[in-house]
Amino acid sequence: MRVKLTSMFFAAAMLPATLWAAPAPSQQCPDKGAYVQVLGAGGPELTTGLASTSYLIWQDGKARVLIDAGAGTAMNFKQAGAQMADLDAILISHMHVDHVADLISLLKASYFDGREVPLPIYGPTGNQLTPGMTDYMQRLLGLEGLYPYLNNFLAEAPDPSFSKASYRWVPRDIQPSETPTSFALGDLRFASADAKHGGVPALAWSVTLEDKTLFVTGDSSGPGYLKAMADEADIIIAHNALPQSYSGPVERLHMKPDAIATIVGQSKASTLVLSHFLDRTATSSVQQETQVVLAASFKDEIAFAQDFDCYPL
């Protein structure tokens, strides 16, 4: 069930227009209960008008887990009312630009957001096409990387003058596998499996909080073993980058609606959220066709995500 968001707008009519710019309205989930919010429902294209891929898990008004951080995430994260100081973990599905472009912006912003404890960042291992999570962070923040001035956030032994010696960004590599890799952080339980996104190492993720499980397919060609993760989910986010009419090589990277239906058709989930739209899947006519294909197998709510949509776990 999509939740109606709270929108707040403050005006300052007495100030000259040249001195005052109205703040954007906030787009906040309810402050009681557990929710997943779509920070970015788009892909790599700018023409959809959507931010690139990102999802945020909330509990009682606090941001707990961020999944992916494509372009536009940082702005939407703040507009949603989230704080980097509250996050327990960041999960990355793979290292394509539309999933990680805003990661460095968020991490830098966390310095000013009052965070004092390490922040774990989980992502896949690498290959010749994309770096793994640890290598990616080293290429960004290492002394020979793009932003060596931020190395203290990553280094084992930071400069003694560094004012936040207790705070680190802690990347962790996870090998994509058909058998899910599981771990826990406090009351959060995580599992990941190989999403099969062409030749790029990629992870599908599930997160369990308050005995409710979110499953995110990520960019995936839809291998059958993901069905087991989908079956146990209470809400599923599936990436919808291909229309049913498509036929071609991109099926090695993404699912058509009938492939999504195969993965989710027997799930106990009450909500299926479609996301990661490209121009070819963002039109109302294509989405109507997609709805028909999916509704033949998935009998509960099917939603087509927009930025800031919020769904209960």
From TrEMBL:
Secretion signal, residue range per the UniProt entry: 1-21
Statement: the UniProt record of this protein carries the keyword Acetylation: no
Domain Metallo-beta-lactamase, first and last residues per copy: 51-267
Gene Ontology molecular function terms on file: 3'-tRNA processing endoribonuclease activity
Flavoprotein among keywords: no
Domain of life: Bacteria
UniProt-listed InterPro entries: Metallo-B-lactamas (IPR001279), RibonucZ/Hydroxyglut_hydro (IPR036866)
Cited Pfam families: Lactamase_B_2
Record keywords: Signal
Ranges in coiled-coil conformation: none
The name this protein goes by in its record: Ribonuclease BN, tRNA processing enzyme
Organism this protein belongs to: Ferrimonas marina
